[in-house]
Amino acid sequence: MNENQQIVFTWLKACVDVDGDVPIKAIFILGDLWQMRRFNDQEAIRVDNAYAELTEFEQYELLAAFAEWGSKKFCKDCGCEMAVCADGWKDQRKCCPDCKCTKGE
Description:
Helix content: 40-55%
Number of strands: 0
Structural class: mainly alpha
């Protein structure tokens, strides 16, 4: 990822992790960051500038990375959200005890 992609990627992740926004809402908010210029919000301006510099191809690369990052929070078999555990989600039964795909085995 180039610097502009990394700036926007970090901001998108923070929208989801810190602010609790869903992925599509984070992308929607990204499109409205230009409005924050009137409040002189320097972080929003920095992210908006980085976003404005991305080519269409770089935007697709960024979206793919964002989707890959976000999908790691979910069970690949059933789609339920897994809690963070000490071993980094390696033991799915530990992280996702209600998951139907583990069958308790």
